[in-house]
Amino acid sequence: MKSILVPVGSSKNAQSHLQYAVDFAQAFGAKLYVVQVYNVYTKAGTMTKVDHILERESMEFLQNHVSKVNTKNVEVVIKTFKGKLIDTIELVCKSLDIDLILLEPRTNSIKDEVYLGKTSGKIIKQTNIPALIVPEGYKYRPIIYILMALKSATIKKEGVLKPLQDIKAQYKSIVNLLLVKTPFYNEGDFDVNEELSNMITKTTKSENATTFQGVLEHYKDNDPDLLCVVRRKRGFFTKLWEKNLILKKDFHASTLPVLVLSGLK
After folding, report:
1. What pLDDT score was predicted for residue 230?
2. Is 47 exposed, middle or buried (CB count within 10 Å of its CB: 0-12, 13-18, 19+)?
3. What are phi and psi of 2, to 5 degrees?
4. How far is the C-alpha of 18 from the C-alpha of 28, rounded, in Å?
């Protein structure tokens, strides 16, 4: 893991989140890109200099933001971009060869009942970039126990397990697999290939309406430091991903980091 992206919003948790990102990047010897995406909606011919003003203010904000944390020996690069959030994030990740996005659950929302705000929700739901969602105020600590939840272990894409493999290698983590049999189960869904099997210490099988419910039933028994799930169009946390904004009452595991891998198929 060489390059990590941290999109910055205006939440009160931004400083705590950035410090976690620095500590996490330090463990991997990774470069940290701290970015802000801004967009301007103006009528043609009006406020022609507003782009320059927003770019300058955004850069000043990021510089001030980074100055408030202990960057240790981590290389921190700040950048601002103009454009639509999702399109810009995807282009930035591609051009900077980003391995992982570190997200705050609520980049702008101030409502206490919200777990995943609209901005973070959009990035998780509408991109296919591996992401680590870090709870508010969460202090960095080594990731020893990982619970990986899947409704299908079929892997067709190369490299999708790499973020998990990197974390396991760095922390010598123990990875336990939860296979959830849902009404959409297909023959062979629980066939675990050699690449994944080599990472797993223990496998548990469960039967639930959704992967989400399977996680709620089993994650406390595993007491993980990290929950690992897979992004699917109609898969992980189907109930949760219906809307970009997700409430804490709908996701009781909101006290631990969640690693979201890109689709396996």
Report:
1. 85
2. exposed
3. -110, -30
4. 16
Element (H or E) spanning 146, and its range? strand 145-150
Which residues are CB-contacts of 57 (< 8 A; sequence separation ≥ 6)? none
Claim: this prediction has a pTM higher than 0.90: no
Distances (CA, A) of 126 to 111, 170, 243: 23, 29, 11
Check residue 166 and report its DSSP letter: H
Distance CA 61, CA 55 (A): 10
Instruction: State the pLDDT at residue 66.
Output: 94
What are the pLDDT digits (tens) for 216-240? 888 778 889 999 988 765 444 444 4
Q: CA 11 to CA 31: how far, in whole Å?
A: 23
Outline where 96-232 has alpha helix (H): 118-126, 162-171, 194-197, 211-222
246-247 vs 114-116, strand pairing mode: antiparallel
